[in-house]
Design goal:
Largest sheet of chain A: 6 strands, antiparallel
Order of helices and strands of chain A: HHEEEEEHEHHHEHHEEH
Low-confidence stretches of chain A: 1-11
Strand content of chain A: 15-25%
Structural class of chain A: alpha+beta
Oligomer: homodimer
DNA sequence: CGCCCTATTGATCACGGTCAAGAGTCGTGG
DNA sequence: CCACGACTCTTGACCGTGATCAATAGGGCG
């Protein structure tokens, strides 16, 4: 679906376009036009096919990555060669802030799981902003706080919800923000089921069974990767009977 | 300020002492003497007995709390009136940064679980520092990043480790940083077992059984709340046989 | 000393993992 | 266009970790 012959891997786009793309990220929205120009000058925009590894845990952090399109999986490798998915980052998300800011190696592995379009900003230029630009530091602080809240929510979910509830929560979280409440909302699973299962701390098999259960219970309707939510209220309140 | 007698809940200490205590926290260590003085002027130092609730989830955030002594439990309330412990904060830790910085209500409930000594800094004064003091913002950024790393580690542990491994990991994490490797290290469980169990996402019963197992396996020796680690290497590598 | 709170121990059960086999699904090439 | 192979997804049978319920044993403290 992508692979439209676009610019070569690291071709720069027109500078103004790059600036606008950068400004679209909340993290950078506070920057002045000049700062954006400076960043744009050092930015590299490239497309990354599904399967590409952006970095592995242990790698040193080369800079900040902004996701324009596609999906990136953040995971840890377990003892037995398996991996657990910690987060899925989509368009609008970014990678590498924390290792960059702490000057530490990456703790997670990032792999593209849906053909992506990514902007890379070198570490140097970001660290300069940190050193010089209060607005940027405040923006980064806010960004990391939001991420911490998110991560804490994941931990809570993992601890207090059972599989069915985690799946229901995930499906609801995939709903676009403000949709018509009347129409039957539908979500599209962003990547293959085994990845979503791991992200929800489930096996592929169990995830499949839960989807089936929800279907039997009349809560969802599955058609391929498309899922229609038939009863959002019931799903939100109590996806299981007891 | 100070010397104003002994007020009950909020006896102030001598101002210089307060400044020094504040400077002891990494978050505030970057502040100038003047800024510290300003903070100290608005700071309230009080002792909180075991059982006291500092705030509940949903409460608006009144400011930053610094823990000098004791232990505070951060938890979420579940549907059935139970609670899950998300973190245990000890001396040197702080509470409330994130809700304060985001201007949101608390998402967690904080309860003192070991008689504590706490400094409270009003929201206003911290937000002023955020607005004015680059060093403070950078320091806060670093602080939140570290917390995010910590939280991510907890999530990983919860996902990839089984109960025995989580207990072993916890015991090892309680070891003081750089101790003599020769001497048999010992840790003291900071609070009652049911709280630690919840923090490790285990039931009290299961936690008790795991402790017993580790004892039988010759890995630890339990005497009341004191636990001696008899074989750190084996515990670190593989607390279970397989 | 007796009471209350905490920690243990036992028995049973369910959620979810593992292993194994079958059913789609899709891309590639003959 | 169909056939093949490689994945991904589903379904089934079984098992283990850890939760639940219940009863007992410690342990501090008024």
């Amino acid at each position: 679906m992508d692979a439209q012959g676009m610019e070569s891997p690291s071709a720069s786009v027109a500078a103004p376009a790059m600036e606008d793309m950068l400004a679209g990220f909340a993290l950078l929205a506070v920057l002045t036009r000049e700062d954006l120009q400076r960043l744009a000058r050092g930015a590299v925009h490239h497309s990354a096919p599904c399967g590409q590894i952006l970095f592995r845990q242990g790698d040193s952090c080369s800079g900040l990555r902004l996701i324009l399109k596609g999906r990136v999986k953040l995971s840890v490798d377990t003892v037995r060669g398996e991996e657990k998915v910690i987060a899925l980052i989509g368009a609008g998300g970014s990678l590498g802030e924390v290792p960059l800011l702490l000057g530490q190696p990456h703790r997670l592995t990032a792999e593209v799981v849906a053909d992506a379009s990514i902007i890379e900003l070198g570490a140097q230029i970001i660290l300069e902003q940190i050193a010089q630009n209060v607005h940027f530091v405040r923006s980064a602080l806010r960004d990391v706080c939001l991420r911490l809240v998110e991560r804490t929510r994941d931990l809570e979910n993992c601890m207090v919800l059972n599989g069915r509830q985690r799946v229901a929560d995930f499906l609801l979280s995939q709903l676009p923000a403000g949709v018509a409440p009347a129409a039957l909302p539908a979500v599209t699973l962003p990547v293959k089921n085994s990845i979503i299962a791991s992200r929800l701390n489930l096996t592929q098999e169990h995830f499949s069974r839960i989807l089936h259960e929800l279907q039997v219970a009349g809560l969802i309707e599955v058609r391929g990767r498309q899922i229609r939510l038939l009863d959002v209220a019931r799903m939100r309140y109590s996806p299981h009977e007891d």
